[in-house]
């Protein structure tokens, strides 16, 4: 590309696509120039002409076609001259593969000329050596420039040939254009000059160019200034577009995180309401059972007394009846006097009351507000503002306005929680009642007492912004089913002892999907998960004896066939193969289900944890207190006892991808702990503290930075530990929709996949601590 203000060279013009038609993409033929200065073949323009107009294929400008047709458009003599030069360099007539002399046929007839070795730049003829020598000796041509043909074809004389090139008159072949008719602005040869333009003032071409060049250069300078302004405007527009895209990406992320917060709050309220419902039903059933027991006892007593009286009256003799008459009458009167039907028991039927905003079609929890983008006058100031994280005043005002309209305003850029008055609220202007003051709260870590309500912590209590206990009402309030006010924080992490420092990963909900397929005969029981290819997981469904493939978005990708009668338990993906345990056997199969080998395991263990080593060519399996490692051929590569103690029972196993030594993590059911070992089985870290809540440790997963995610099924939690096995706090709780989590796996080191006991899978994106 030629830079602005510089003149293109002849070589650039000849070697570029300047001489190609943009319509047919071939070399221009009979080039015609439109008023927009774009040049095309005459025949190509004739095909575009429609109804007296045509549209330029490049700038899309509509151009009227002259009455005489497209042939009346100006001929581009500049392009014609360049084309003549290109054709001459490419060669004309060839004889035996060599250019022939152009003068020899004129003197001695066809077929008598020799091969051309020179070229006259003035006549534009190829000459043999004899004709070239004679050309230099005649009176009319002795001033002509005759050059070597090889050098001419190589482009050595392009500039000189261009200077000596003359444009030919289209009306008089062989005549060069020499004059410019000033009134007509038309180029003339000598023949044209003598006939219709004889009385018109005409100028030689050189003189006419000298007279008109300054005006054209002045116009060109003005266009160059316009180009500079257009370039500046284009850069400003690009910067504005980049800012728009950046802000759109930021707002899109905020929308996702706010929506995730709303969903989590809704799931937490769902758990709360269902818990209240279960508690109410259990209490009512207990009271009903007590009343039923009392009524049944009274009924038995009354029936027994009545049966005895009937027997005496029907079977007794007169003396017998009279002797028992007093006792029977007294007992029957006593029974008649008892309150057989107690007062009606209070029956409180549960009713769900929804927040009015949920039923309002015009209710918008999320709403966008738009503000005019102001140009950045001081880049340094803008940079300081972007680093400081302070929003412009106009944005804050618009944010407050959008909140009053029912929208949700995001946080400041530095991630700090927005002030209380700027937090998102559900629409209360539409007649909605004041939201509940009671906010749910999860049990605190390490044995902290669970509140009576047992509710999950809301996002407003994240980032240390918890409401003081004194401000809460101790009086129980009737649940109204309303959405609580939430912030944009993507994932509260209750109980994290480093929460305020922002040093821990945080979960961002991605999606949730069921694993039951139409062909399944039973409800899924997921006992194993592992990554399987890019953004894909392999699910071991023990109940349906299947290995199912799903994408991270929940799309079903089919199944990996398993041997007949096998119920896969734990599963791991290796290089081009799948390893899984079933009963007391370890299998290695290909993705199409072909069994490569199987190995018998100890019968003393109900299930065997399987894990792929980071190299991808070995598989480890826990067997009766020790770990066995097999290679791809099925040979036992190594065997070790974690910590040198055979009294460990590993029920979950995963290798640390960040450790080149092959460190691994296991859940020890025998010792009720989480153990971290090196590649030789030596314990380098172990946790068995109160953070496990007395539960047996379950499935373990590890992210790309070595953080350990441990499943505690009994308390509906996934806790997080550092790479050395020290507990850091809760990562997922019932607040995030966990209901008896069973198995987890980490995909790409960034997505934590959690399976629940009901066969549902939740996918969370692990937000790094330094994000």
From TrEMBL:
Class of the enzyme per the UniProt entry, highest EC level: transferase
Similarity comment: Belongs to the TRIM/RBCC family.
EC number: 2.3.2.27
SUPFAM superfamilies: B-box zinc-binding domain, NHL repeat, RING/U-box
Species this protein is from: Ursus americanus (American black bear)
Protein's UniProt keywords contain Cytoplasm: yes
UniProt keyword list: Antiviral defense, Coiled coil, Cytoplasm, Immunity, Innate immunity, Metal-binding, Phosphoprotein, Repeat, Transferase, Ubl conjugation pathway, Zinc, Zinc-finger
One GO term (biological process): innate immune response
Recorded GO CC terms: cytoplasm; nucleoplasm
Coiled-coil blocks: 227-287
Chief location bin: cytoplasm
Composition bias, Basic and acidic residues: 374-384, 392-404, 435-444
RING-type domain ranges (all copies): 21-60
Domain B box-type intervals: 164-205
Protein name (Swiss-Prot/TrEMBL): E3 ubiquitin-protein ligase TRIM56
Positions of region (Disordered): 372-500
Classification via PROSITE patterns: ZF_BBOX (PS50119), ZF_RING_1 (PS00518), ZF_RING_2 (PS50089)
Matches recorded under Pfam families: zf-B_box, zf-RING_UBOX
Gene that this sequence comes from: TRIM56
UniProt-listed PANTHER family: BONUS, ISOFORM C-RELATED, E3 UBIQUITIN-PROTEIN LIGASE TRIM56
Biological or metabolic pathway of the protein: Protein modification; protein ubiquitination
Location within or outside the cell: Cytoplasm
Biased segments, Basic residues type: 472-485
UniProt GO MF annotations: ubiquitin protein ligase activity; zinc ion binding
Keyword Repeat: yes
Reactions this protein catalyses: S-ubiquitinyl-[E2 ubiquitin-conjugating enzyme]-L-cysteine + [acceptor protein]-L-lysine = [E2 ubiquitin-conjugating enzyme]-L-cysteine + N(6)-ubiquitinyl-[acceptor protein]-L-lysine
């Amino acid at each position: 590309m030629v830079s602005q203000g510089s003149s293109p060279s002849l070589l650039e013009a000849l070697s570029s696509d300047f001489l190609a038609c943009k319509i047919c993409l071939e070399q221009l033929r009979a080039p015609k120039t439109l008023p927009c200065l774009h040049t095309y073949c005459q025949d190509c323009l004739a095909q575009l002409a429609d109804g007296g107009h045509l549209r330029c294929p490049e700038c899309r400008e509509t151009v009227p076609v002259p009455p005489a047709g497209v042939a009346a458009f100006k001929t581009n003599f500049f392009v014609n001259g360049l084309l003549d030069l290109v054709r001459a360099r490419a060669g004309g007539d060839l004889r035996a593969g060599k250019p022939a002399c152009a003068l020899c046929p004129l003197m001695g007839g066809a077929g008598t000329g020799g091969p051309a070795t020179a070229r006259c730049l003035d006549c534009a003829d190829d000459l043999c050596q004899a004709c070239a020598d004679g050309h230099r000796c005649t009176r009319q041509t002795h001033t002509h420039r005759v050059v070597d043909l090889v050098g001419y074809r190589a482009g050595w004389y392009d500039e000189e040939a261009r200077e000596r090139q003359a444009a030919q008159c289209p009306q008089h072949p062989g005549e060069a254009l020499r004059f410019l008719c000033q009134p007509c602005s038309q180029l003339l040869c000598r023949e044209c000059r003598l006939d219709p333009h004889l009385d018109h003032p005409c100028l030689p071409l050189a003189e006419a160019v000298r007279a008109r060049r300054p005006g054209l250069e002045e116009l060109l300078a003005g266009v160059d200034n316009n180009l500079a302004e257009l370039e500046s405007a284009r850069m400003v527009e690009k910067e504005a577009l980049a800012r728009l895209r950046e802000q759109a990406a930021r707002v899109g992320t905020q929308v996702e995180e706010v929506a995730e917060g709303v969903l989590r709050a809704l799931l937490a309220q769902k758990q709360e309401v269902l818990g209240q419902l279960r508690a109410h039903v259990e209490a009512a059933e207990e009271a009903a059972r007590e009343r039923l027991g009392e009524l049944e006892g009274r009924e038995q007593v009354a029936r027994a007394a009545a049966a005895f009286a009937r027997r005496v009256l029907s079977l007794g003799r007169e003396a017998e009846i009279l002797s028992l008459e007093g006792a029977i009458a007294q007992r029957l009167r006593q029974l008649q006097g008892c309150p057989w039907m107690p007062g009606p028991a209070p029956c409180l039927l549960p009713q769900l009351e929804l927040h009015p905003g949920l039923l309002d079609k015009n209710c918008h929890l999320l709403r966008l507000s738009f503000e005019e983008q102001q140009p950045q006058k001081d880049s340094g100031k803008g940079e300081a503002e972007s680093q400081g994280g302070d929003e412009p005043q106009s944005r804050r005002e618009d944010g407050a306005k959008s909140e009053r309209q029912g929208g949700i305003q995001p946080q400041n850029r530095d991630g700090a929680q927005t002030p209380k008055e700027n937090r998102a609220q559900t629409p209360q202007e539409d007649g909605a009642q004041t939201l509940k003051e009671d906010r749910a709260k999860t049990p605190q870590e390490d044995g902290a007492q669970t509140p009576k309500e047992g509710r999950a912590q809301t996002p407003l209590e994240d980032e240390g912004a918890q409401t003081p206990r004194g401000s809460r009402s101790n009086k129980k309030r009737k649940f109204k089913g309303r959405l609580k006010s939430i912030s944009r924080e993507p994932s509260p992490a209750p109980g994290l002892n480093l929460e305020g420092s922002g040093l821990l990963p945080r979960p961002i909900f991605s999606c949730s999907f069921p694993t039951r397929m139409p062909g399944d005969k039973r409800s899924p029981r997921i006992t194993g998960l592992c990554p399987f290819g890019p953004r894909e997981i392999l699910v071991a469904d023990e109940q349906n004896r299947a290995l199912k493939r799903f994408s991270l978005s929940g799309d079903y990708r089919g199944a990996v066939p398993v041997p007949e009668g096998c119920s896969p338990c734990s599963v791991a993906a290796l290089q081009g193969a799948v390893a899984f345990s079933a009963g007391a056997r370890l299998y290695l199969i290909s993705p199409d289900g072909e069994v490569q080998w199987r190995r018998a395991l100890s019968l003393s263990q109900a299930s065997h944890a399987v894990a792929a080593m980071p190299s991808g060519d070995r598989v480890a399996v826990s067997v009766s207190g020790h770990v066995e490692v097999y290679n791809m051929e099925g040979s036992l590569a190594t065997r070790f006892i974690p910590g040198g103690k055979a009294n460990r029972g590993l029920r979950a196993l995963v290798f640390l991808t960040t450790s080149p030594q092959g460190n691994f993590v296991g859940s020890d059911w025998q010792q009720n702990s989480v153990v971290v070992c090196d590649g030789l089985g030596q314990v380098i870290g172990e946790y068995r503290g109160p953070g496990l809540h007395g539960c047996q440790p379950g499935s373990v997963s590890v992210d790309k930075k070595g953080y350990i995610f441990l499943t505690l099924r009994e308390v509906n939690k996934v806790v997080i530990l550092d790479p050395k096995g020290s507990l850091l706090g809760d990562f997922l709780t019932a607040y995030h929709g966990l209901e008896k989590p069973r198995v987890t796996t980490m995909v790409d080191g960034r997505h934590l996949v959690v399976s629940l006991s009901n066969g549902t899978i939740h996918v969370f994106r692990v937000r790094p601590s330094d994000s």
